[in-house]
Amino acid sequence: MGHAHGDAARLLRGSCEELRGELLAAGVMIDYNERARLADYLQWRVPKRRITAAIRTGWTRDGRAFVLPEEVIGSEDVFFQAEQMHQDGTAERGGDFETWKTEVAARCVGNPVLGLSLCVALAGPLLAKVHRDSGGVHWVGDSSTGKTTALNVGCSVWGGDTFRRTWRATSNGLESAAAALNDTCLCLDEINEADPREIGSIIYALGNGTGKSRASRTGAARHVFRWRLTLLSTGERTLAAQMAEGGKQPKAGQLVRLLNLPAGRKHGAFDELHGFADGRALADHIKTQSGRHHGHAGPAFIAAMLKDGRDFGAALAVVEALEHFQAGNSQEARGASRFALYGLAGELAVEWGILPWPVGEGLKAAAEGFRLWKEARGGGSTEDRQILQAVADFVSKHGDARFSEKSADPLDQKQPVVMQRAGWWIDLEDAGRVFLFTAQGLHEATQGHDFNRALAALDAAGWIQGRDRNKEGKRSKKTAIGKRKLWLYWILPGDLDE
Length: 498
Prior knowledge:
Structural class: alpha/beta
């Protein structure tokens, strides 16, 4: 991580102007009249101490010190030499550690969405010690679930409100952000703001830990960004649904780097309200407190790691062997290994007094995350049920306002005006009211699920009433609406308790 000796020696050639410029910029006072003697002095003096100039954050090469923009943990002989004097959104402390423990961390007990987010954020410094790649968790849920609260909790491990970034950034912008957060955690809000065509390559890059190689203005190869970090992300859609909008199919490797988890629990993203009136009140409290008190837990975790001599790889193997993290196939095993790492991070933080949780709370949150991920990924009856419930809820909420009778005369002034139409309806004698969804309407009703997966679930449940018999596998039907013919999905919601 230090500058090469050759670079320094090269700066001593000629009149030393380049070197003098560097020193002046760094605040060294040099007598202008004596400037010619600078090279003599530097070559004559033999330094008593050697200082490592770290040019990036994270673990030093020997693993004995950890560099953060505002401090170096574990060594007095390492200094951070940033390319930029100050970067927004890097690790910073605010407020009081003890207040963070009681007002933020303690509220995560009994709340696996919050607890797991905290564990993911803490696990960043462990990646290098257990030789694991970057990766993380993506919370999926509608805008009111409180998934951003989970992100606030994760951010508060390392920094304040500016630590949270948005998916709207370009891949280049996210590369420099990832490099600046090496060995910590990158928190990204709102995947739906990302460019659907770019998202797959962004996730590959973030997971691989290397940026693109680019040429500088002079044509020379620029320094390639490198990083290793955990990821926390949120969105109203899964990774697959967001990529599908750009016409891309996610590969299994991308889905294992960023694990999709549903954020919906009993009260929004929460199971346990800790005495608050509702989920919103708890979310507001956490947002306020994490904005005031933050950035203490991450550095404390690193300091404890440096003092603890254990083999973290062996400790992870013990957690991976627990029954909670047993997998049925190799893809599942990769996911299980990630959740085991997050569980280990939580338990170490409890042991070191950083998290005010009962022993086992971190493992419990990680095991619940693994269970949710397997369910969401494997489809199975749980996801089918979620899809059917989502469509039934959409119909009960919007059935009157956003659908109108198929046979109604569009010029009839008495007909109610339909805003943001999701489709039409028709009453069939023997079946009941069938809703003729437009593709866009059904996409909205099944938001957060892969669309083909949703159609398969509706089909399996017998909710699809009409289809084009001439086209195999087609689940929509060409339907006459006035003088137009549209492909519509004929859906008859059935009983969910069957």
